[in-house]
Amino acid sequence: MTPTVPIAIIGTGMAGLSAAEALHAAGQPVQLFDKSRGSGGRIASKRSDVGSLDLGAQYFTARDRRFAAAVQQWQLRGWVEEWTPTLYQFANGVLSPSADEQVRWVGKPRMSAITRAMLGALPVRFSCRITEVFRGERHWHLLDAEGASHGPFSHVIIATPAPQASTLLAAAPKLAGTVAGVSMEPTWAVALAFSEHLQSPIEGCFVQGDSLDWMARNRSKPGRDAAQDTWVLHATSSWSRQHLDLPREQVIEHLHGAFAELIGCAVPAPLFAMAHRWLYARPSSAHQWGALADADLGLYVCGDWCLSGRVEGAWLSGQEAARKLLEHNR
Ligand SMILES: Cc1cc2nc3c(=O)[nH]c(=O)nc-3n(C[C@H](O)[C@H](O)[C@H](O)COP(=O)(O)OP(=O)(O)OC[C@H]3O[C@@H](n4cnc5c(N)ncnc54)[C@H](O)[C@@H]3O)c2cc1C
Ligand SMILES: NC(=O)c1ccc[n+]([C@@H]2O[C@H](COP(=O)([O-])OP(=O)(O)OC[C@H]3O[C@@H](n4cnc5c(N)ncnc54)[C@H](O)[C@@H]3O)[C@@H](O)[C@H]2O)c1
User: Fold this and answer.
1) N or C terminus of the chain with fewer C-beta within 10 Å?
2) Helix, strand, coil percentages in the chain from 3-state DSSP, rounded to 5
3) Looking only at Cα atoms, what is the longest distance across the chain?
4) Any idea where the Amine oxidase domain is (predicted)?
5) Which of 59, 87, 102 has the most ligand 2 atoms within 8 A of CB, as the residue to mutate?
6) What ipTM is given for this predicted complex?
């Protein structure tokens, strides 16, 4: 490996940052890219007039020993805290308490605080959508949507949802074929804020319904702005797929209605409402790939969809991409 030529990492979600951290710790220079204005990907917190709202990942669990050790470090640094919501479930038309023993973690004071802290001072270019990944005589180069080229790079790690990764894999047709076979499901997310606190004990609720899948009281998480009663609602994959192009106001109206019917208390008109569409929210099925690679070429692909489709899976997949890269180039 030529230590002065950096490794390009496309995507600053949990998978890309996990790979970046591992490579940086091994003394390898990295250069990150993201099409968004900030890091985090689906670990997203939207700043709004009613405080910061976690619109993507709501919390995460740590079942793998290695991930649990990383989370322990994050906790010591104050990046994450345990969230202990009063949990409910809605199943077969019945709303009931559903407490359990599962430890659930959230970023503090917002979910995206974790990825922001992981990025630290690593070199990154935001608002830079990579459209092409190509190999020159010795090194890799990237082309962005503005037509600018970036490089040279010794290796490239693509850490995006599968449908976005497959379009960047023209240099490795076999890998591209595998990745193109992964489908991902959408999720509509809606945030609502009420000026008065709703008369409900619910802080998180797993819903088995036609349209709603999950609802959470944002202010029940540690470090959140508690002035308003803010809620985040997620629609099911199938409702989201069927209503992919519904105007945002209608998505808000529908999910607000479903929420009001379910929660069992008076629900006034929200003083704030917004909707966000996640096109590639979760893989349709889980895989056990860890990370994918054409190691001879120097191309690696990682993301939650290579494993469990959760924050933990994304972190593990990034670690695995870095491990494969370092091992192949020892
Ligand atoms: C609504 C919702 C709720 C969820 N709830 C939970 C939960 O409660 N618990 C849990 O564990 N998981 C949850 N998840 C899943 C979790 O968010 C993901 O598993 C994890 O964040 C994925 O990380 P990633 O790095 O693989 O991908 P991403 O976070 O999607 O990161 C990919 C990054 O690549 C960038 N990118 C894409 N294409 C390009 C390009 N061409 N050029 C440059 N940059 C590009 C994107 O902007 C993005 O920042 C949820 C997801 C959603 C959407
Ligand atoms: N909306 C999306 O796009 C998206 C994408 C990825 C993950 N997620 C969600 O992220 C969560 C992460 O999963 P995890 O395994 O880390 O967390 P987890 O163990 O809390 O939940 C896993 C699943 O188990 C069930 N469950 C857990 N505790 C329950 C309880 N007390 N009462 C009733 N049902 C309960 C729910 O169906 C839940 O979806 C899941 O809820 C998943 O649906 C959502």
Assistant:
1) C
2) 25, 30, 45
3) 67
4) 111-326
5) 102
6) 0.99
